[in-house]
Design brief:
385 residues; alpha/beta; Rossmann fold; Heat Shock Protein 90; 3 domains; five-stranded mixed β-sheet; 9 helices; 18% strand; elongated
Length: 385
Amino acid sequence: MAVHTVLVVDDEPASVRAVARTLADECRVITATTAATALEALARDTIALVIVDQRMPEMNGTDLLARCAAERPEIIRVLLTGYTDVDTLLDAINAGHVYHYLTKPWEPRDLLLVVRRGLERYDVEADRRRLLCEIEQALARVRREAAQKGRLLALATHELGTPVHVLTNALLLAAEAQPPTPVREWLETAQRSAAWLGRTLAQMATASRWRGGRLRLERRPCALAPLLDRLQATFGVMTSQRCLAFHRALDDDGLAVNVDPVWFECALINLLSNAVRFTADGGHVSVTATRAGTHVAIAVCDTGIGIGRQFHAELFEPFSAACGDVSLHGSGRFEFGARGLGLGLAITKAIVDQHDGCIDVRSEPGRGSQFTITLPAWTAPLPAP
């Protein structure tokens, strides 16, 4: 265990020696009989605790402790005083931020107890500062990694976007040449793969733009009934192919929200896509909108595989572990168990946050999932289409 250094300051040499003898077995003691010498020691040595006499000719104890508090705030400060008036003690507490005070004549037992407890506090505060520094360093690393991840998304999207676009057009031109059947089948496979790459890059580009704050919302009142009708039409074909029951419901056909309709529909499509992919054939998927006081709650529910509680806290982070084993990711878009990059929920949360809303999840393994977006309701009359 490290031996702490204690500085004793008193203009009476006998008093300094008495304190030093009392503390000799507890710590390393250095002494000073003037304020100037004490300030030199404070600047030079690693001092854990300082004991200062109040009545000194050059600078009183309160002023010296105030200097100590300003220049070395981590040092524990103790005042020795022969005064008993309240004003002196209040000055010491307010200006010098003293940890404790002792009145002369002091008892050795009392002095030892104060010093021991003061050094214990010094150690606790040192540990706190060390832990705080480690937390700040860890936070800085996390922020750097997040920034690097965002730059990687932007760079990958930029570098891969052009060749994928060229590849897609080249395949389209090749297909128009009416190749023989075996070649045409391979071309169709290549076109599906190119389309998958295009969708992936589009999602990466969207995530990069939302994270970089480079999107502007064009908000306007949006009726939910026609929006849910479009979603039902969009997902109706694929759910029927998978034998999934798709249900859409509103408790009030007049429900509306003030959103950017394009991006808000994108958020709901992300949730419904996940619901379809993670629900086995024969299951049930629904999207419902209900009034909740001054807000509207839009819920996407499924009877799928569910999500473990250990993943809920990080569910809306990019590339969350909730996406599962990366070896299971594939190019399938809506097949059961198909997985994407792990950006959909992060994009959805960013969209909802930008609309002054919130999103939460209720899910358990084997019992399906419910994602609920809550937004302020639009209560004024809707403008004419």
